[in-house]
Amino acid sequence: MSEAETAISVRHDTHHDILDMDSGEVKRKLERIREFQAVVKQTLAKDHDYGIIPGTEKPTLLKPGAEKIAKLMNLQDDYIIVEKIEDWDKPFFFYTVKCELREISSGLLISAGLGSCNSKESRYDRRWVPEWKLSEAQKAMKATFPVEDRPYRDKSKGTFKAYCIPNEEIFSHVNTILKMAKKRALVDAALSAGRLSDLFTQDLEDIAQRVSTEEMPTDDSTKPAHDDKPTILITSPKDGKKYPVTMAGALKAFAEIKKRIGNDAYYDCLTTFRVDHANQIPFRQMPEVFDTMLEIARGQGKYE
Predict the structure, then answer these.
(1) How far, in Å, CA of 52 to CA of 200, rounded?
(2) d(Cα 185, Cα 292) in Å, to the nearest integer?
């Protein structure tokens, strides 16, 4: 028999086996999938391992949840940069990463996922700045920037103009862009390995970026300098008590906890609350967001 005839025979036998698969075996496999999904539901924690965006049908799997799924399945993750563009002159940065999940004991490939990220995404490419914070150079060009009227926290004060300007600090985000591509690839691979697409959807920030700017929270840090300085109560990681802090004090607390939990967990948490940076969190909501990050830190053993 020729190689071509052998190949045809093998394909024919495989097709025949699929058609004749025992219905009981199919049911058992489906039941094992349901059992694993039940374990995942019991194990993963809301706002840490997955997040929920209002108006979406399914929760969104986050990196900590994807890592737990891989651990539950006894899998290790390996990454390959499939494609990259690093143009320091434009500047433009783009990465496509492949994540392979393999059995730790045998090295057998169980699942693979792809993730990409680039510096033209809105969270990296531009930022919203109130008019009084524009530099002299930016003021000269403000007619070329998209502009929005945003309400003050105290709506009786009316609105202020915010301009969408290019991010001049994109070079400091190159490593973050690469890590984001890796994270998206991991989530994709974990969803496939666990057959969990009916429980979770893909990256939360992909959904968040589709939320219109009119729905985004007001940046309370954009209050003029001559305004009074209200305070909020932030939980101290040291003694668990709540202390009053101003906006500056709150941002300092967020900067400190970011060092504790790491960039990925930090930005995953911010994205859960539909913001990219701490100064975009409504001032009165900051204690809630900070407490969520504090729980993540304690879960990591960073605060005893």
Answers:
(1) 10
(2) 25
Query: What are the tens digits of pLDDT across the range 80-114?
Result: 999 999 999 989 999 999 999 999 999 999 999 99
Contacts for 253-262: CB closer than 8 Å, 24+ residues apart? 253/290, 254/278, 254/286, 254/290, 254/293, 257/290, 257/293, 257/294, 257/297, 260/297, 260/300, 260/302, 260/303, 261/293, 261/296, 261/297, 261/300, 261/302
Q: Does domain 30-118+169-216 have CATH number 3.30.160.20?
A: yes
Residue 162 sits at φ, ψ, to 5 deg, of -120, 135
Domain range summary for the chain, segments of one domain joined by +? 30-118+169-216, 218-304
Q: What is the pTM of this model?
A: 0.55
pLDDT per residue over 165-209, tens digit each?
888 778 888 998 999 999 999 999 988 887 777 667 655 444 444
179-205 burial string, b = 16+ CB within 10 Å, else e? Answer: bbbbbbbbbbbbbbbbbbeebbbbbbb
With H, G, I as helix, E, B as strand and everything else as coil, classify residue 91. Answer: coil
